[in-house]
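hi support,

uploading two proteins for the ticket. first:
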Amino acid sequence: MSQPTTRESNQYVELVRVSPDFRNLWFGQIISLLGDWFNLIGSAALIATLTGSGLAISGLFVVRMLAPFLISPVAGVVTDRYDRRTILIAADLLRAVIVLGFLFVRSTEMIWLLYTLTALQLAVSGFFEPAKNAILPDVVAPKNLGAANALISATWSMMLAFGAALGGLVAGTWGVYSAFSLDALTFLISASFIWRVGYRIQPTQRSQGKSVADGVREYADGLRYLLRERDILMIASQKGLIALAVAGGFNVVQVAIAEQVFVIGEGGSLSLGIFLTVFGIGTGLGPILARRWSGDRDGPLRQSITIFYALTGVGLLVLAPLSDFYSVNLGMFLRGFGGGVVWVFGTQLLLQNVPSAVRGRVFATEFAFFALASALGAAWTGFSLDRLGISGTLWLMFWLNLLPGSIWLWWTVRRNRARTMPG
């Protein structure tokens, strides 16, 4: 077992060492994600402290998801038309300015400003995320694409773990406004790293028309591509389906557990940091360990998604009774482990199967599915918390989690049968 581990570790190290463009993109992501978790914990803790309402907390996550959903049609076309590196830099600079506005939210009457700024910040993120995914095959060699995707996804998880812990410490010790200030700084540092990426706009992007009518046509072409390529559509819908059932409202539940059940720090900010840390470790380890078996092979990637849907359910079963602090964290870890594999392997299947000319639109549409479903998931979770309580909501999530897992299993079996049929 030690040889595969060493070989895979060397693959990641070699990728970072020999590819300066990927290295700078990766460093920028590390810094930016650190600030993202500072902002999320600060925002959630601030709303919890000022309102004490589960519905108000869920409203934060609804806004965080609806904004990128609404902007996604434009973001997809822009990502396929223009220099993806420039889009990433502009998004970082805009977000640095926007998050400084959180410093002015000081009372319940100013909650509207927090929601407004959150909407603006996440709308800009709606450009950043598809551009980040679309640029990856343009800055790494095809043979390194799987390792690059796994490393970037694991970095998201590691920064969730480290950033959430550090963000919880900062917010719980020095107050939530310190977290907002540091978030703005991280966006500026991220932009400086991405500036060094030697990306050049692709020929397929130069050939696009620049009028509004051309943009509408390009967006419609992207939708037609998804409707025509049913397998790509199914892969792109997975994040949205699991967000509707579980992931969209899970952050709301984590905040509620931290604020009401295991309260550590101001507004439960330290306990929330611990939960996010454990969850992040799970999401980081899952794809790295699962990839040792699957590699970047299409069949094993699809099989892994089915298996780890089931592990997500196990995590919810452990978590739902809220028995004690340790079992809650074990449930967080298992849910993160399974969900991380579903997320990363779904992205890898798209990276391997979607051509560059429509990659931005496909990832933007996938992000739109995910954002809308997350908003709906956060909304129903807020209502459920006020009516069923935390444990009842977690049990409901367990049953709903069976739906996306069953749909993916059905599609996988159907696709395999179709591929083995003669003629």
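and the second one:
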Amino acid sequence: MSLRLRLVLAASLVLAGFLGATGWSLYVAFRESAEAGLRERLLGQVYALLAAVDADDRGRMQMPRSVPDPRLSRPDSGLYALVSDARGRILWRSPSLTGHHPTFLRPQAPGARAYHEQNLDGQRLYVLDYGIDWEDDQGAVEGYTFSVAVDLAPLREEAAGFAASLWRWLGGLALSLIFAQGLILTWGLRPLRRVATDLERIERGEAERLEGRYPRELRGLTTNLNALIESGRAAQRRYRHSLDDLAHSMKTPLAVLRNAARLERGEALRASVEEQVQRMDGIVQHQLRRALSSGQGALTTATPAAPPLERLARALAKVHRDKTIQTDLDPGARFFGDPADLMEVAGNLLENACKYGHREIRLVLEGLSPEPGAHRPGLLLMVEDDGPGIPTGRAREVLERGRRMDQRAPGQGIGLAVVAEIATANGAHLEIARGDLGGARILFRIPPR
């Protein structure tokens, strides 16, 4: 089920429930209002009958000779009236009851009133019984009950007409709202369809990334998708370049071995083979590390940086017992990327510091707080030693693969080149300067983003 259909169905169910409850509430309110009006009209008929009652020469109640409402004098008009005494004997009936035997009268105590429904020869009546006391000239008090009934058929027809009109209007309103809702959802979900279309264009090779302006809620998604696409392409480029470099770098050692096998013998041949094999091993290791460097993508997870660096520093301190490695590690610092990249950088920098430093090495790790508008904190890794240092003019030179400042120390001259490539993959800045200990200071800094 599509997202649009889900939203339309959910909103339609909510709309149907809301309009249904609204319609039922309006219908009930209309019925109650109509019944209240009917009761008021029945009470008005009772008061009109009381006003029409007269007294005889002894002050006793005399039934009205004329009725106040013409409907009471017209047979089967739908409005009927009765008057009875306290014993329930009917003393007077309206001419509209001609041909009927009324049974709807219910005697009431003086001042009491009661409403009820009653059948009369197939008609459903709504009845008001109203009790009164009448005192004659002799002071005798007699109780009477005035009953007025009205046919409910017109009221029910009116309620049915109101209900039909109400549901017709609410149904039309519901269809209009659902249609408008579909248009709004179509317009609102258009950016998502555009993202899907752009991704299909990327799959077909017609585009390289998600372009255009997207709503604020989708910018994180499109940015991360672009970063993921770029990360995959960068990995492909690294693999391809690494294979090309590996093939190119192997040409010279293989040529040397070929010439040595043809021209040299004995110890000289063994030394040449060992040298070239060591060189090829260094080239292979370098290219593998370069190809496997994952970089810092938008979807990478954060890992604590201090614990593995602490273990690395302790391990190197055991290997280089004549060196002192001072550490200042921020426990809250986090690295967004492959932890192997961070270990590769720290391992190469510390190994070089132990190799070229005299006695003292310093390792500093610091987390950089996000700047306004940034979502990820940065990271600062610094390694410095008390060795001879790196001249400012040769800082770029030592980052090239195979270039070494000191040919007496063992190695292939690829450690700092690996660090530089990992820095590029992770968006980091690499800075080489002279440190406070007198030797080289190398800063590996990933800015907040």
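thanks. also noticed: The two ends are 37 Å apart (CA to CA).
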